[in-house]
């Protein structure tokens, strides 16, 4: 577990805070300010609960059942029942990092003092996170509206000491046993608390923030592999000149071009496009790499803007306003998050598409400007990287399917009370798959481009730049062998995938270039 501590309530929550808790096991604490806000809003809820007038979520049923006024003697049962009945997820278990992000983000909203829960409820969630107890949450159960209902309900169920959870060692056990082993008392829910625990967009927001962190690394990685391919194809780096990108001032495009220029600095391979088979211009997949990756970078910047706004939000229904009013609202609708989740899946698919086209160009002797067919040792006897490109193409095809928007769909629920939903959870789940696929696609381009650069350097007439040499050396040290006769390729590709996914590729390049965007 991380020794880092994230304190809720003193200042705003950052994307880095979420990543620290979700992935690095950072501890969570509530500030005195947060506890005071929780206690103040709770007093308003208790005052309303004592009045005869019905208040949604406090003294009524939920959704289409909100027409029934609930007597005081049944209100604790009402809150328990909403958690139990809504914990209706099905399918595979959701990843630990996603559940931790979801729990932390729900706690962040509770700590805002806008939901009306008691401070002990918030402290109990923090205790679960700090103990490394992760509720079992299932793949299916959220429509991205009225919150990520089933996923959050499974978390609330663990808080009540019911259902199943994963311990810090990864073993799934009854939640009651895990709580007892860590000295955590199950929560007895009171008015509004069950509703407040499950009425947020925390799952889709958590997955958005995790994906943004991964995509930031992958956009840089794709700039690096595009530069290696340009180098291996003896292309020109003149198209990367800052003045050319200044006249079309998209910031992401300029950043990608600058990254590629840094990687190519000092290369003896670039600029030979006029040699044996003269080219006026490089192909689009090489020449337009900054434009495509840059557009993805700008999409990512927009997604982070939406994510930061959502981090600054208190999503619940009803909410406790600063003047004490408790008001119904529609802020739980996931449309803002769902749209950017889908948008990122489109950008990821297109980045994968252009990377695959560059890989194919490296392998085709008719377009690779002197490289051996499929980068094979003895073409005909050896197949080289022929089937690695097949794998890459299959991944790209899958990513195109994943780019079909979830947010354009809606299936009414709750007897037509909830008659338009965002499907944001589904958008987030498919984006996670797209991020994994993009990592593999970039890894295949890296694998091919590194081999091609080495083949160009045979004999010493043309030498790659220092950054390329550092990348190839690091890849070889990681366990990927260089050019040679055919061998079992899957293990090499798996190492290349880890090399990209862990950030080792970026670190290897930056050991020469300095920090890349």
TrEMBL record:
Q: Name one GO molecular function term.
A: histidine ammonia-lyase activity
UniProt entry tagged with the keyword Cytoplasm: yes
Write out the GO biological process terms: cinnamic acid biosynthetic process; L-histidine catabolic process to glutamate and formamide; L-histidine catabolic process to glutamate and formate; protein homotetramerization
Q: Which reaction does it catalyse?
A: L-histidine = trans-urocanate + NH4(+)
* Alphabetical list of InterPro entries matching this protein: Aromatic_Lyase, Fumarase/histidase_N, HutH, L-Aspartase-like, Phe/His_NH3-lyase_AS
Top EC class of this enzyme: lyase
Keywords assigned by UniProt, alphabetized: Cytoplasm, Histidine metabolism, Lyase
Q: What is this protein called?
A: Histidine ammonia-lyase
């Amino acid at each position: 577990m991380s020794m880092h501590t994230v304190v809720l309530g003193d200042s705003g929550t950052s994307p880095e805070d979420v990543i620290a808790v979700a992935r690095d096991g950072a501890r969570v604490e509530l500030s005195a300010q947060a506890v005071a806000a929780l206690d103040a809003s709770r007093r308003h809820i208790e005052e309303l609960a004592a009045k005869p007038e019905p208040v949604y979520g406090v003294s009524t049923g939920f959704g289409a059942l909100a027409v029934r006024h609930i007597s005081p003697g049944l209100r604790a049962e009402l809150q328990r029942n909403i958690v139990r009945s809504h914990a209706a997820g099905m399918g595979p278990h959701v990843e630990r990092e996603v559940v931790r992000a979801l729990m932390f983000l729900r706690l962040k909203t509770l700590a805002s003092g806008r939901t009306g829960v008691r401070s002990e409820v918030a402290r109990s969630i923090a205790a679960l996170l700090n103990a490394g107890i992760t509720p079992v949450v299932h793949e299916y159960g959220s429509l991205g509206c009225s919150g990520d209902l089933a996923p959050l309900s499974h978390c609330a169920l663990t808080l009540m000491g019911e259902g199943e959870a994963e311990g810090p060692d990864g073993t799934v056990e009854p939640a009651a046993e895990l709580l007892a082993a860590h000295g955590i008392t199950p929560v007895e829910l009171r008015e509004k608390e069950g509703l407040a625990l499950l009425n947020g967009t925390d799952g889709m927001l958590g997955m958005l923030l995790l994906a943004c962190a991964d995509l930031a690394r992958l956009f840089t990685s794709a700039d690096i592999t595009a530069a290696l391919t340009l180098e291996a194809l003896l292309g020109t780096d003149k198209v990367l000149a800052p003045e050319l990108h200044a006249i079309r001032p998209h910031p992401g495009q300029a950043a990608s071009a600058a990254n590629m220029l840094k990687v190519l600095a000092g290369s003896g391979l670039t600029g030979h496009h006029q040699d044996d088979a003269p080219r006026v211009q490089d192909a689009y997949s090489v020449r337009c790499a900054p434009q495509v990756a840059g557009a993805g970078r700008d999409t990512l910047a927009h997604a982070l803007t939406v994510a930061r706004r959502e981090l600054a939000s208190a999503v619940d229904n009803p909410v406790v306003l600063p003047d004490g009013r408790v008001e119904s609202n529609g802020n739980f609708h996931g449309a803002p998050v769902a749209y950017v989740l889908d948008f990122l899946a489109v950008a990821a698919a297109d980045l994968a598409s252009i990377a695959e086209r560059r890989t194919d160009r490296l392998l085709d002797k008719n377009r690779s400007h002197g490289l051996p067919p499929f980068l094979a040792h003895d073409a005909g006897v050896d197949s080289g990287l022929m089937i690695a490109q097949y794998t890459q193409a299959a991944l790209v095809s899958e990513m195109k399917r994943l780019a079909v928007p979830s947010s354009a769909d809606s299936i009414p629920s709750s007897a037509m009370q909830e008659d338009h939903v965002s499907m944001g959870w589904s958008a987030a789940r498919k984006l996670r798959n797209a991020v994994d696929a993009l990592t593999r696609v970039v890894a295949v381009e890296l694998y091919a481009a590194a081999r091609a650069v080495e083949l160009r350097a045979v004999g010493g007439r043309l030498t790659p730049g220092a950054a390329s040499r550092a990348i190839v050396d690091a890849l070889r040290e990681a366990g990927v062998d260089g050019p040679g006769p055919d061998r079992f390729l899957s293990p090499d590709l798996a190492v290349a995938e880890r090399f990209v996914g862990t950030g080792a590729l970026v670190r290897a390049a930056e050991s020469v270039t300095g920090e890349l965007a």
